[in-house]
Design a protein that fits this description.
The protein has about 450 residues and is of the alpha/beta class. The protein folds into 2 domains: about 150 residues, Alpha-D-Glucose-1,6-Bisphosphate, Chain A, domain 4 (2-Layer Sandwich); about 290 residues, NAD(P)-binding Rossmann-like Domain (Rossmann fold, 3-Layer(aba) Sandwich), CATH 3.40.50.720. The protein is about 35% helix and about 25% strand. It is built from 14 helices and 21 strands. The strands form 5 sheets. Strands 11-10-9-8-12-13-15-19 form an 8-stranded mixed β-sheet, with helices on both faces. A hairpin with a 2-residue loop joins β3 and β4. InterPro entries: COQ10_START, DUF1731, Epimerase_deHydtase, NAD(P)-bd_dom_sf, SDR39U1, START-like_dom_sf. Belongs to the NAD(P)-dependent epimerase/dehydratase family. SDR39U1 subfamily. Belongs to the ribosome association toxin RatA family.
């Protein structure tokens, strides 16, 4: 029997309602777990099922869970129908505390396969896994609820997201739904709650843009590859043409949304050495700096139409699910990770959860407009980042990647991303009292990698 409890600074009803939302399941899957949602009923009513695809000891497996009990504002229960355990019975309880807040309790009655032998050799590993998992789940639940509570006096919104299936969008959408917001996707593909667009032909279904309260524009070609001329053109077109199409279309609406939050990047500042960069700092030089300037300028039609436009200059997003950290993990786990070049270049990093939280903050706070740096309060050098990651996963980091090797492998991309120095400060976020979930690098990496 495993039990984990946390006190959450909201009422029982509020905490229970959060768990009823379809996006809660996405938010509760630990990022270090190789788990995908194959099917869900979007309900916790008895009889509803969830099917998860995962790998156990390297082997693919499906975990089928069924909800069997539900008592609103009290508890709900699920059990394993098939999966890795011989038995799994999980009860989620919501207990009122004396001060009117909620004590969240997860209790798991489980049995490891293999009888006494399995219990003898596997129990400690399973207990550690459960502790890390539920610590992460309770932490995420608490911070999501706190973030929504800050803007609880505002009415819920209808929000469209482009790039909804990307690293950031795949967590932003579920987060917004747990706050009661209605989310639509802007995508090339047709589907439920989807606004179709075609950037190449500058076409979008404008009829479905009517009635939106906000648009969060994240779509763009990945920059994490060698930059051929064709790749560079795709990077430019996807960002500049996509932003122009969207902003011009919103500007023509009878009832345009009040806000458009448009992704940008720290590449706006170029390679700036040790200079501390606020939102008022001038742009830098290079391909990415030019792209970011054109990207932000493409939103001018929306500004001219009176829409509040925010440019989120996003730093290095940390998640084992994608981006820089995901690419670094394999060599680091093999003991061949190390600093890149001199290691003196500044990396302005931010956790995926803080990107999600900050985008929500920018959408809801009517006082924010223009550029906003999305990064943790303290940037670190590549050397310190490398050293910290090695400590967290208990691996050596003495094998540095020489500058010439990085350039030989990745060309201009290495120059402007891996070797470039950008020391941003999140001045606007701090001035508007955004509360960072992950301000410290080591704690952030331990949480993301299940090494707390």
């Amino acid at each position: 029997m495993f039990t984990f409890r946390s006190k959450i600074p909201v009422s029982v009803a509020t905490a229970f309602h959060w768990h009823e939302q379809p996006g809660a399941l996405d938010r509760l899957i630990p990022p270090w777990e190789d788990v995908q949602i194959e099917h869900r009923s979007n309900s916790i009513e008895p009889g509803s099922r969830v099917v998860l695809k995962m790998h156990v000891a390297g082997f693919p497996l499906r975990w089928v869970a069924e909800h069997t009990e539900l008592e609103p504002n009290s508890h709900f229960h699920d059990r394993q129908v098939s999966g890795p355990f011989a038995r799994w019975e999980h009860t989620h309880r919501f207990l009122p505390s004396e001060d009117g807040q909620c004590v969240l309790e997860d209790q798991v009655d489980y049995q490891i396969p293999g009888g006494g032998l399995g219990d003898r050799f596997g129990r400690s590993k399973v207990e550690k896994m459960l502790l890390q998992m539920f610590r992460y789940r309770h932490d995420t639940t608490t911070h999501d609820l706190i973030a929504h509570a800050r803007y609880q006096e505002r009415p819920t919104m209808k929000i469209a997201i482009s790039g909804a299936s990307g690293l950031v969008g795949s967590q932003l959408g579920p987060f917004l739904t747990t706050g009661g917001h209605e989310v639509a996707k802007i995508s090339r593909s047709a589907g439920e709650n989807t606004i179709q667009w075609d950037i190449k032909n500058q076409e979008i279904d404008s009829t479905k843009l009517e009635g939106l309260d906000a648009v969060i524009h994240l779509a763009g070609e990945s920059v994490a590859a060698r930059w051929t001329d064709k790749k560079k053109q795709a990077i430019i077109n996807s960002r500049v043409d996509g932003t122009r199409l969207l902003s011009e279309s919103l500007a023509k609406l009878k009832n345009p949304p009040k806000v458009m939050v448009c992704a940008s990047a720290m590449g706006f500042y170029g390679d700036r050495g040790d200079e501390i960069l606020s939102e008022g700092s001038p742009p830098g030089d290079g391909f990415l700096a030019d792209v970011c300037q054109a990207w932000e300028e493409a939103a001018q039609p929306a500004r001219d139409a009176g829409i509040r436009v925010v440019h989120a200059r996003i730093g290095i997003v940390l998640s084992p699910k994608g981006g820089a950290l995901a690419q670094m993990l394999t060599p680091f786990k093999l003991g061949v990770g190390g600093q890149i070049g001199s290691g003196k270049q500044w990396w302005s990093w931010i956790s995926l959860d803080d990107v999600v939280g900050a985008l929500h903050h920018l959408t809801m706070n009517d006082q924010i407009r223009g550029p906003v740096n999305l990064c943790a309060p303290k940037a670190v050098t590549n050397h310190d980042f490398t050293k910290t990651l090695g400590q967290v996963i208990s691996r050596p980091t003495f094998l540095a990647v020489p500058e010439f090797a990085a350039k030989l492998a990745m060309g201009q991309m290495a120059d402007e991303m891996l070797l470039s120095s950008c020391r941003m400060e999140p001045k606007v976020l701090e001035e508007t009292e955004y509360s960072f979930r992950d301000p410290h690098l080591e704690r952030c990496l331990r949480k993301l990698l299940g090494r707390q």
